[in-house]
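=== Discrete structure encoding ===
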Amino acid sequence: MPRTTAAALVAIALLWPASVLAMTGNGRQMLNKWATSSRCAQQAQKAFPDFTAEANAKRDALLKQCLAGGNLPPRPSLDAEVR
């Protein structure tokens, strides 16, 4: 069992640099936008941590403003109906 785990770790260590180098420019751009969008959501949550209707509305507004400033796609509202 330990040999199998060690062999898997060695294989991952050897293939990791190749996978990073193989990533296209579009892939890197998508990952950067995703990370920026995530930071916007974290900032909005930190600014308005309560889950009241008023805090949700303010958090949504701040999130939309941050996403628009970074030319990122919008996220659904927290008050949107879930189906």
Summary: The mean pLDDT is 82. The CA atoms of residues 6 and 12 lie 10 Å apart. Residues 30-83 form one domain. Residues 25-47 form the longest helix (23 residues).
